[in-house]
Structures are given as structure tokens and as C-alpha cells.
Amino acid sequence: MNSSATETLDPKKIINILFRHKWLILLLLLAGASAGWFIAGTITPTYQSSGTILINTGGGADEELSNIISQATGVRTGSTLANELQVLQSREFARLVAQDIIEENPGNADEFPVLWNIDEEGVVSRASEAAVTNRIRRGLSALVPEEDSEVVELSFSSSSPQETALVVNTAMNIYVERSTLQNRRAAESTAQFLENEMERVEESLERSEARLREYMDRTGIVMVDEQASGIVNEQVALETELQQLNVEIQTVNQAISNLERQLDRIQPGLSEQFTEAIGPRIRNSQEQLALYESERTLIISRNPGVLNRDPLPDRMIFLDEQIARLKSEIRELSAQLFTEDDEFMGLDSADRAELVSSIQSDLVELRIERNQYESRRDALAERREEIDSRFDSLPDGMIELSRLQRDVRINEELYLNVSRQYADMSVLKQSQFGFGQILDTALVPGSPVSPNKILMAIIGLMMGGVVATGLLLIRDFMDNSVNSMDMVKQLPISLLSAVPVLDKVPEKKKKEFKTKQSKIPNELVLMRDKGHVVSESVRRLKNNLIYQYGHVPPKTIAITSAEKGDGKTTVAANLGIAFADEGYKTLVIDTDFRRSNLHSYFGLDNEEGITEYLNGKTPLVKLFKSTDNSHLKVVTAGKNNPSPESVVNNREFRAFMDKMKELFDVIICDTPPFGIISDSTALLKTVESTIVVTRFRKTNRGVLLKTLEELERIDAQVGGIVLNAFNHKYEAGTHYGSGYYKSVYSNYEAYIED
């Protein structure tokens, strides 16, 4: 027998399962939302405050000042936004903020927990400067909200709202003061340098003028001829240009030294490693990465749905592979330059490589600039030798006078140049400020940023829904009972009837037997309420049995089941009443000698039954027990049967059954559950029709299939299956569509009531 019942969870079935358990799902949804809300309440709230600061790294008076300082001292005061962001996130900057807050000593541990330690026993103590620094560095973040903008948003997270605003405002003030002090110190240092240089050049000018006057007084020669004057002018212009070139070369050399020292501060020996081509390799990889990413972005912008294709175009696959390879290569090269203890901790490898590559790029440009200056200097030096040879050909007196005049004019040019720079610096240094300008100060937040109770409740709600859905689907998938009408219909045995679940009847509405003083039990529904939908399903079972065999019902019918508790006795009793109501002389026999229960349905005793008849203790006339229906007689199983498995095999029992066929139109035998016990095998082989009762969402489908196989093996005449205690509310779907039985039952009840 093929036992393949369809187990697929189609969408309609899933929806029916969920709708069937809607109240359980709703309960779990509410439980999940409540749990999320409760968990959010147990988490320490985190507050965040932020302020904005404008970082101007160049342009205007600041750029002019930087040029003067660079020309005068070889030190560059300019910066980049990326470098300033690293400053804001550096350990040194966090230490300055920590020092300022520690000195201010703002309050207690509840309002400013960053300054305090609380041990396991609840003892509060002041935190060290290093601990405060680390906490501020972890909680302080700086980011640029919009691309190509110089506005930086500085934020801090903490369990105290007062602390967040204090740390952010302190950090912004320290940054502004620090950058201002740094620039002003550079300006003052440059002004002092220019002042000293101006004094030195002035002294040199006075000495050269004094020598010139002394020579003219001594020799009486006060002027040179036109030829000598032209040579002197050329020498002055040449020496002035050479002097300026030497200053430029000195400035470039100083800038190169500063950048190399900056690399060595990041990691000792880093400048040498860049010289050995690690830096250029990183830069080349970054340039290739930028090209590939630009091409990928262009393809996506021109083809918006390209990422949804399966598979991706070959070019996209190639670009993704190259981008991943280059990123990995950059990380590996950067790892060769940095260790965990290096400066700028907190940056990932790509950001560190970008920062160092930027410095290396400046070094390359400065070295090229130095080479150009040195080439010009060499050319001017050759030109100076030529002019000096012409100068040496002048008369001796004229040479000395020209040399003295040349020295005076050179010193005059130098003095004028230094004086002009000093004057400019004197004006600019008074208006010098730092890179930062505070736009918005941080305010004390009124509500925490986390945990978000509403979000946590929504997540809990979703988790509750997922858990509920998963449990219900798993439960339905793991359910091995007869839980579907479709499963029964797929069996090779016909479904004779689906008997609905019997509702419990209140005691005051129960009827009493006419023949005895006891109430009719709920199970005997055809005697208690003939208009009930269960009564109609039993009558349908009776009609199907009649017309299955033509127009005459089978003479002998056996009612069995796969398991105990499936309701075979209930079906047998009600089916007997249904035949009796039609006028058939009906006999219901209890042949379940181990667990006899038929007598209790009709309010009868079990003192004299078929066991006593077969033992000769009870005559035949006392064997038949009357009921409220004159056409229905009941034979109970009796008591004290030492060998119940052999009763139906008894020759006297077979003779008894032959005699009953002569007296009654229909004989219904309530047999033991054949799926678990074989006592009724002989009886099931001889009856004209065997009905198998299975209980909805209770009977194990494997046991049912095994029972049908065993009945087929003994050549029993199986008339069909009765699905007992069927509840349409728990039916996931039927051959006739979802809601079929609900519609049938509701229409039946409405029709009867009308």
C-alpha cells in the first residue's frame, strides 16, 4: 500500500496554519514586544552630544603667512583636513582634553563617570589620567557630514548627558586654542627670526658702506665708468638671485627634513622604507584602486539594475576581483609599515597608508623642486664666473671700487627684502588664529540615543513573530497524526464520513432515557439531538454504507480503529441508532472483551453478556438488552473472560453470529483496535464490511497505514474510513478548498434552525 501523503507546506497551507493559531501568534508577538521593551529598560542608557567646528586649513591671510614662514624658516604651517581629523582622534589630543576636565573637576561619579572608577564592591575612586584619556578617546569621534566640506562634527557618547556636552565643548575649545597657539608661536618665531636677520643684514650694510666711504676718501675715486657700472649691476642682480635661490634651497631642505622626521615619528625608519619603494607601491595600488572603483561606479550609474543580474557581467566580476585584490595588497603593504604600538592607532590600514602616502607625495614634489633650484643655481654659478672674469679685467682701482659698491647694493637688496617680510609678518601675526572656528556648541541631550525602546520593542515583536511562525511550522511538519482531510483522501480506502468534533453539552440540556433513570451521554448524539451536525454525519455514514452495497446494507459490520481512543465505540453506537431509526432491526454487539464500554453508552449493566452466554450461564432471551429505540438491541461483552483473544474464534460464537443474522437486518460489532491488538482477526475476516475509525489530529498516520495493510493481509472487506472528531478550525486545507467544511456545517445549522 502506498503511504506517500503530501507534506509540502504550500503558501495557502502556511496561511491557514498561522490563521488557525492567530491568538497564540498574537500572544507571542506581545510577549516579544514586552520582552524587548523590558530588556531596553534594563540596559544603561547612552547619551550623545555633538558640536560642529569649521576647520580652515589654508587660504587668505593664513596662506600668505604660511608662505612667509616657509620662506623664512623652512617650516610649513599649513595642514590638510585629513591630518586635522587625525589630530582630533589622536591620543595626545585626548590627553589634553582629559587634563583640562580633571583640572576643572566638574562633579560626582553619576554626572561625570569618565573621571571615576567603581569596583565590584561599589567603592568609588578617582580614575588616573591615562584611564580618563583612553575613555575620552574611545567615546570621542570626528567626522565630516558632507563630502568636500570643511565642517567637522565632533561627538561624544556616555551614560551621563552632562558629560557628553562637557567633553565635546572642552575638545572644541582645546583644538581652537591649540591650533591658534601653534600658529601664533610659528608667526612670533618667524618674526623674531626676521628681526634678527634684519639686524644682521643692517650691520653688514653699514660695514660695507663704511668700507666704501673709506676707500673713496683714501683714493679720491668716487665713481666708476659705464662699463664697470654695467658689470657691477649684473653682479648685483646675479648675487641677489643666487642668494634667493640659496634661501629657497635651504627652505626646501628644511621642509624635506621636517617631513622625514614626521615619518620617523610615525614609525622609526619609515622614511627609509619609502625610499626602498614600499611607499610608491602603496601609492600605485591606491591609484589603480581609484580607477577600478570609478569604472565600477560609472557602470552602475549607467545600468541601475546591473547588480541584480545573476550572474553578474564579466566586467563587473573582474572589477570586483581587482578591487578586492588591491585592497588586500594595500593592507599587506601597510602592515609592513605599522605595528600595534605605532602612532595614529585606531586607523585601519587603508587610512594609515593614505596618510603616509600623502606625506611621501609631498616629499617627491619637494625633491623635484630642490633639483630644479640646484640646476638654476649651477647655471647662475657659471654665469657668475663669466662676469667675474670680465670684472677682473678692469683697472685695479676700478675693480676695488666696483666690488665695494657691489657689496653695498647687495646688502641693500637683502635689507629691503628682509625688512619687507618683517613688516608683513608684524601685521599678519596680530590677526593670526588657529584652523578651527566653533559653529555650534554641544548641548546637554534630553533623551538617550540608545537603547531605543520603541526599536527594541519592534525587534522583539518581529522576533516573537518569527519564533511563533517557526514553532508552528515545525510543529505542523513534525506532526505525524492524521491532521489533514487531504491525507485521508489520498489513501486507497474511501472516506465514508467525517464526523465533526462533539461539543460539550451543559448538564441542564441533557435528555434522559425513557427506559431507565439516567441521562443520555454526550457521545450518544443521535439519541440526544437528532438535528445536530454530528447526527447528520452519522446518517451520511449509514447512507454511504447502504448504497455502497446497492440498496441493502451489509448484514454484518465491524467497527475497528488503529489506536485506542479513536472513538470506534461512539461510531458503533450512533451508527446502530441510525439504522434503527430507518426501521432496520439492528443489533449492536460489544466484542471488545478487554475494554468493554458499549453498555455505558446506553446506561446498561454488563453483568450478563456474550461471555456468560458462551459459558452457558445466561440464556439467549436474557442476552438482548432493550434501548429507547424498539428496533435497536444491544449485547454487552460480559464479565470475567479469562481468554478474550479466543472468544471470536469459538465455534459457539460463530454459531451465535449465524443465528443473529437470521434475527436481525444489521449487526454491528464494536471490536478492539486492530492496529494494536489482533483479538478480532477471525471476526474481521467474516463480516461483510469493516469500518476503520481514525481520530483527527490524534491517530498516528503510520499506525493507520499499518492497520490498513494488516486488514488487507487477512482479506478483510474494508468498507471505508470514518474520520472522527474532525474540527474544521484546525484543517489546513482540503481537496475542496479552504473553508469548505466550515461553510457546510454553518449552512447545515442555519438550515435546521430555519
Q: Which stretches of 5+ consecutive residues score pLDDT under 50?
A: 1-6, 59-65, 71-78, 338-348
State the distance separating the first and last CA atoms.
Answer: 46 Å
Strand fraction equals: 5-15%
Gyration radius, rounded: 53 Å
Mean pLDDT: 79
Structural class: alpha/beta
Query: How large is the count of helical segments?
Result: 24
Count of individual beta strands: 14
Assembly classification: single chain
* Spatial shape: rod-shaped
Major beta sheet, strand line-up: 7-14-13-8-12-9-11-10
**In which range does the helix fraction lie?**
55-70%
Describe the main β-sheet briefly: 8 strands, mixed
Task: Please explain how this structure is put together.
- It contains 24 helices and 14 strands.
- It is of the alpha/beta class.
- Strands 7-14-13-8-12-9-11-10 form an eight-stranded mixed sheet, with helices on both faces. It has a four-stranded antiparallel sheet with strand order 4-5-1-6. Strands 2-3 form a two-stranded antiparallel ribbon.
- Helix 5 crosses helix 6 (129-139).
- The longest helix has 59 residues, at 161-219.
- The model is unreliable at 1-6, 59-65, 71-78 and 338-348 (pLDDT under 50).
What's the arrangement of secondary structure elements?
Layout lengths: L10 H10 L1 H21 L4 E9 L4 H14 L7 H8 L2 H14 L11 E3 L5 E3 L2 H11 E4 L7 E8 L2 H59 L6 H41 L3 H6 L2 H25 L11 H22 L13 H44 L3 H33 L7 E5 L12 H26 L6 H5 L5 E6 L24 H4 L4 H16 L7 E6 L6 H14 L4 E5 L7 H4 L8 H5 L10 E2 L5 E4 L15 H13 L2 E5 L10 H6 L2 E7 L5 H13 L4 E9 L13 H14 L1
Parallel strand pairs: 7-14, 8-12, 8-13, 9-11, 9-12, 13-14
Antiparallel strand pairs: 1-5, 1-6, 2-3, 4-5, 10-11
